[in-house]
């Protein structure tokens, strides 16, 4: 399921890439940008970053920690 960011101009999908099962970095973060070239974060329409399971877990943990900190801070 895609996650839409930046006023829906950036689509992010995260998935296990079965065809890359022989590689350690087989978890894909796919960024697709639907905006003019001068507004892009990446150079291409689609950018893929491949992670190992440990890297994916570290990223997930960092996101969860930041979300928790944000929720606590917004209660103050």
Q: Can you walk through the features of this model?
A:
The protein has one domain (3-75). The N and C termini lie far apart (33 Å). Helix content is 30%, strand content 30%. The protein is α+β, with helices and mostly antiparallel strands.
The unreliable regions are none
Give the SSE order as H and E letters.
EEEEH
User: How many strand segments?
Assistant: 4
Mean pLDDT: 95
Question: Strand sequence of the main sheet, in spatial order?
Answer: 1-2-3-4
The rounded Rg comes to: 15 Å
What's the shape?
Answer: flat
Q: Could you describe the largest sheet, including whether it forms a barrel? A: 4 strands, antiparallel
What can be said about this structure in brief?
It is built from one helix and four strands, in the order ββββα.
Question: Could you list some keywords that capture this structure?
Answer:
alpha+beta; 4-stranded antiparallel β-sheet; 30% helix
List the helices and strands and how they pair.
Elements: E1 3-5, E2 10-16, E3 27-33, E4 46-51, H1 53-75
Antiparallel strand pairs: 1-2, 2-3, 3-4
């Amino acid at each position: 399921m895609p996650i839409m960011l930046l006023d829906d101009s950036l689509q992010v999908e995260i998935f296990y890439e079965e065809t890359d099962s022989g590689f350690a970095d087989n978890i894909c973060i796919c960024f697709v940008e639907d905006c003019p070239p001068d507004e892009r974060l990446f150079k291409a329409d689609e950018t893929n970053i491949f992670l190992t399971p440990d890297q994916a877990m570290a990223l997930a943990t960092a996101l969860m920690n930041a979300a928790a900190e944000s929720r606590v801070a917004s209660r103050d």
